[in-house]
Design a protein that fits this description.
mainly alpha
């Protein structure tokens, strides 16, 4: 059995209110983070479109590449999290 899960879900445990608060806040926090990530991606795309000289375009392309790699890593980790704990 999952000892940590039983400990956190125990009504007599001191951590039960903390677990309940995290369960309520986590989905909203994940949504806000994903929304901010989407806005940042849009801003980077606009910067790339507005870049006039080659040096600025290369800098924005590197930033956009790093952003896309980071976003993919976060999405994969969220999918793993939801596969492990679908009720979060």
């Amino acid at each position: 059995m999952d000892f940590i899960r039983l400990l956190l879900e125990d009504e007599n445990s001191a951590t039960s209110p903390i677990y309940n608060a995290i369960s309520l806040i986590a989905p909203a926090a994940i949504g806000v983070i994903l929304l901010l990530t989407a806005f940042y991606g849009i801003i980077l795309g606009v910067r790339l479109a507005k870049a006039e000289d080659k040096e600025q375009r290369v800098k924005v392309q590197k930033t956009l590449t790093n952003f896309l790699i980071g976003a993919l890593i976060v999405i994969v980790l969220l999918l793993i999290l939801f596969a492990i704990r679908p009720y979060v």
